[in-house]
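Ticket closed. Logging final result for Hydrogenase isoenzymes formation protein.
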Amino acid sequence: MCIGVPVQVISPGQWFAKCRDRHGELIDVDIRLVAPPLAGAWLLTFGGAARREMDEAEAVEVLAALDSLEQAMLTQSDPLTGFADLLSRSPELPEHLKNDYLTPKSCLSTGG
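Final structure:
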């Protein structure tokens, strides 16, 4: 499984941005796959490269989930504490899949 990690842009460059990770460390992130970010922007990263820009609210949710997973691996804490946003609602399909899976399909043959 791949897990994306949010980082906040401190100093954008042409191909790399200096970013602050969830532990407060400064890291270089490859930004060639995304539109040029501004300082203060949040990026979802995987493998040292930005995959997409995200808003602060989403970054906070993902960071809480990652902290919860880390705590669950280190202790006997309740791993659900970091997933409050998911426990209070039903799962949703991404927009690009909703039409494929939520639209009733006919299984009647039209042949004669």
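The helical segments are 56-74, 84-87, 95-102. No further action required.
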